[in-house]
Design brief:
heterodimer; A: mainly alpha; Cytochrome C Oxidase, Chain A; 18 helices; B: alpha+beta; Immunoglobulin-like; 3-stranded mixed sheet; about 20% strand
Chain lengths: ~550, ~325
């Protein structure tokens, strides 16, 4: 048996580079597809970061003329679309792809070929979006990119206001990547429901599997309306439809409903896998079992359900009736309860533990603080009258970056460091990782703490420049300075992982003394994951092996 | 009460000096109701933040592993139903309190009755300027909204009907009220009752295209007398003698978009210019209404507002001077 493992893992290294690349392009292995997703997302993270930097340089002082308004409008459209659809989503899919089969003791995803198809659809979507820089104006133009904003409110997307093809590339991009997302979501659901190893009942799955199961359900329900809306938009633009064409009796408001019926659950599509990462890392580095496992599962499912009924809080200013506004205040605030339960359970997991502050745990603790702030500013925005002032201002921009960067990206960085030894078999450089943590933390807070203030002082989002004398100048300068700290943090992370991949110390199969099944196989795991299908009796199978005198299954 | 008042007023002056668009310096009932609610919400959230972050910091410091640690695993605790119940019920009660406070303000602002004394203004959003129509006063103007101050004892609020001629826009003057969107084929409304006179600033708050950033809002709140004087002036026809500039204006494409009352110019796509010189700014607040800027705006709109819908007319220098001179007679 052991000679077989050596043969299978040694084989690719001895082959020529072209063949090895061919292996990656044609792979149906969940680990390789997971890594492809993550690499793809990392490339686009850098691209989207460059777009953000261009915007921030333009806004560093009032009446700046670094870029034209047209360019600025393309930058925020591309930045938003890229970061949501081609960074955050592929990133969480990558983690789910790599980890779910390993953590439930399966050899692969339920549908490996669908898995590959889904990834390449997402990749095609990314290419469509960026091809718009070349082909947006058609054959006779100089090149363009969509400038309709990432939520592309009608009727700005109508032929009248958006000539050329840049909006079409945006539409096709989301249409195609949406099909990939639904494919992956179905795959994750099927894998978790059908591929668990013997003994792993639903109640004994690691929390990461539960949370990704919820995420999969949300993707199926939320992405489908977006795909439908993109088709309707194409019908409007090319087949003379009038779904969103207000001049011909269509409704601009219907687009908003379609978009946010997708858009709000989407926040949880991204946040729940981030919670999943934190739910694995915090117990291991606190040396305690997760506090209140059943409540954590129920809170996650509650968040999933409630998140489907809150979309119109993005629309408090579009003139809904007072009754509708009141309903969406209540449903939106209700989500704070299960979310609060999660924060308290993570806190209780740390309570009484022996916390080791390696890089993954540092990112998780920052995640907890920042997610707390993001949740509380979310409550202020849920108060519809307050939202009449704050909506579409820089306060909102600060709030959702607190969610997506401060919570989700911090959790993803934690996950990078935590599973890097498993994926590569090498240990990352801890000193560089800690430096990256502090750089990114300082940059994050410089940018996004101060970004709340111009919003409170009346600065709307999506403006390519602003008037002097509004009291916004100083805050915008500070926000821009933070960008450089964040950018150097991200580059340091990439450098650390790249160097460690080639030069890092061997990590061994279980460097963190952890408890879930992925740590029971070698690092990196062989193509078939487990030589022998594992059998589990509790939520922490490796704890049971390491502590035969006090196994978990006695208490569950 | 007096004490509270004296405590708030200087703070408000400070808030205005920090920014003329500060949401914490309300000067009208809708903005004021939001302000009161927002203070309650912010204090509640701040209290929660302090409580939870103190616990988090304590846990992170107190339970970090010591150098002298024996490497034994700590006691494993799997959960506690009582504790879970506590941190479900307490946040739920806070949510109920915040919800009830919000519901009250939603009803008081959105469902406020319209008194007979209210002024009616129709606001029409265009790429990238504001059209104001006073249907009962027969006034059409652009970019600078004039309304009377409202004495709380005898309120004379202004009710705005919000329409859009093209894409979505949003009317946001933070010191007067929260924003409401202008959406084509979806009429909205909002109201303001400014308690003090002066100029109130704001800008479009819903991305509407290339020059969304320079779709600025200026609301002039005037005393009853000043406002009535303004109304009378707007209702008069301009009394300029026919000039060379008027001939150029009326014989070129200017009249396709612009209107001047009492002349053949009846365009509806651009701002009504009948009383152009009564306005402080041009290009929706993007530039002051001076001779140089006005001339530049006619010569090359992109120089002031790149991407604006006004085309460069390609006039000769002589015609340009003539048209500028003509427009400067429209008082």
């Amino acid at each position: 048996m052991s000679t077989n493992i050596v043969e299978l893992t040694e084989l690719p290294a001895s082959r020529p580079l072209t063949l090895r690349l061919h292996d990656w392009v044609t792979t149906v292995d969940h680990k390789r597809l997971g890594l492809l997703y993550i690499l793809f997302a990392t490339v686009f993270l850098i691209v989207g970061g460059v777009e953000a930097t261009i915007m921030r340089l333009q806004l560093i002082r009032p009446l700046n003329t670094l870029v034209s308004p047209q360019t600025f409008n393309r930058m925020f459209t591309m930045h938003g679309t890229t970061m949501i659809f081609f960074v955050a989503m592929p990133m969480v899919f990558g983690f789910a792809n790599y980890l779910v089969p390993l953590m439930i003791g399966a050899r692969d995803m339920a549908f490996p070929r669908l898995n590959a198809f889904s990834f390449w659809m997402t990749a095609l979507g990314g290419m469509f979006l960026y091809f718009s820089f070349l082909g947006g104006d058609g054959l006779y133009g100089a090149g363009s990119a969509p400038d309709v904003g990432w939520f592309a409110y009608a009727p700005l997307t109508a032929k009248t206001f958006s000539v050329g093809h840049s909006t079409d590339f945006w539409t096709l991009s989301l249409l195609v990547s949406g099909i990939g997302s639904v494919g992956t979501a179905i795959n994750i659901i099927a894998t978790i429901l059908c591929m668990r190893c013997p003994g792993m009942t639903l109640g004994k799955m690691p929390l990461l599997a539960w949370l990704n199961l919820t995420m999969g359900g949300l993707v199926v329900l939320a992405v489908s309306p977006l795909t439908a809306a993109q088709l309707m938009l194409l019908v409007d633009r090319y087949l003379g439809g009038h779904f969103f064409d207000a001049q011909a009796g269509g409704s601009a408001v219907i687009w908003m409903h379609f978009f946010w019926v997708f858009g709000h659950p989407e926040v949880y599509v991204l946040a729940i896998p981030a919670f999943a990462i934190a739910s694995e890392i915090i117990p291991v580095f606190s040396r305690k079992a997760i506090f209140g496992y059943p409540v954590m599962v129920l809170a996650t499912i509650a968040i999933g359900f409630i998140s489907m009924s809150v979309w119109a809080h993005h629309m408090f200013t579009v003139g809904m009736t007072s009754g509708a506004n009141t309903f969406f205040v209540l449903s939106t605030m209700a989500i704070a309860v299960p979310t609060g339960i999660k924060i308290f359970n993570w806190l209780a997991t740390m309570w009484g533990g022996k916390i080791r502050f390696a890089a993954p745990m540092m990112f998780c603790v920052a995640f907890l603080f920042q997610f707390l702030v993001a949740g509380l500013t979310g409550v202020t925005l849920a108060v519809a009258p307050f939202d009449w002032q704050l909506g579409n201002s820089y306060y909102v921009v600060a709030h959702f970056h607190y969610v997506i960067v401060g919570a989700i990206l911090f959790a993803i960085f934690a996950g990078f460091y935590y599973w890097f030894p498993k994926v590569t078999g090498k240990m990352y450089n801890e000193a560089l990782a800690k430096l990256q943590f502090w750089l990114f933390l300082i940059g994050f807070h410089l940018t996004f703490d101060f970004m709340h203030i111009p919003g409170l002082l009346g600065m709307p989002r999506r403006i390519y420049t602003y008037e002097p004398g509004r009291g916004w100048d100083l805050w915008n300068a500070i926000i821009t300075i933070g960008v450089f700290f964040q950018a150097s943090g991200v580059l340091l992370l990439v450098a650390n992982l790249a160097i460690s991949y080639f030069r890092g110390k061997a990590a061994g199969s279980d460097p963190w003394d952890a408890w879930t099944l992925e740590w029971s196989t070698s690092s990196p795991p062989p193509a078939y994951n487990f030589a022998v299908t594992p059998v589990v009796r509790s939520r922490r199978p490796l704890w049971d092996i390491k502590h035969p005198e006090d196994p978990d299954w006695r208490y569950e | 009460m007096c004490l509270l008042f004296s405590a708030i007023v200087p703070r408000k002056v400070e808030a205005v000096s920090m920014s003329p668009t500060n949401i914490f310096a309300p000067a009208s009932t809708p903005a004021d109701s939001v302000f009161g609610l927002s203070i309650f919400v912010i204090l509640t959230c701040a209290a929660i933040f302090v409580a939870v972050s103190v616990l988090l910091t304590y846990a992170a410091v107190k339970f970090r592993v010591r150098r002298s640690d024996d490497r034994a695993e700590p006691a494993q605790i799997y959960g506690s139903n009582q504790v879970e119940l506590a941190w479900t019920v307490i946040p739920a009660l806070i949510v109920v309190a915040l919800f009830l406070a919000s519901a009250r303000v939603i009803a008081s602002v959105q469902d406020a009755p319209r008194p007979a004394t209210a002024l009616e203004v129709v606001v029409i959003g265009h790429q990238y300027w504001w059209e104001y129509r006073y249907p009962k006063l027969d006034i059409v103007t652009a970019n600078e909204l004039h309304v009377p101050v409202s004495d709380p004892a005898h309120p004379t609020p202004t009710f705005l009907t919000l329409l859009s001629a093209d894409t979505d826009h949003s009317f946001w003057v933070p010191r007067l009220a929260g924003k409401t969107d202008l959406i084509p084929n979806h009429p909205n409304s909002m109201w303001i009752d400014p308690h003090e006179t002066g100029l109130f600033l704001g800008q479009c708050a819903q991305y509407c295209g290339t020059q969304h950033a320079k779709m600025l809002l200026r609301v002039y709140v005037q005393t009853r007398e000043e406002f009535e004087r303004w109304v009378r002036k707007q209702q008069q026809l301009p009394t300029a003698a026919v000039s060379a500039g008027q001939h150029v204006f009326e014989s070129t494409a200017c009249v396709n978009c612009h209107a001047v009352s009492g002349t053949p110019a009846k365009g509806v796509f651009g701002p009504d210019l009948t009383h152009l010189m009564s306005r402080d700014t041009i290009a929706s607040g993007a530039a002051p209404n001076t001779h140089e800027k006005l001339r530049l705006w006619i010569q090359n709109p992109d120089a002031l507002k790149p991407g604006s819908k006004m085309p460069a007319m390609g006039l000769s220098d002589r015609d340009l001077d003539a048209v500028t001179a003509y427009l400067e007679t429209l008082r």
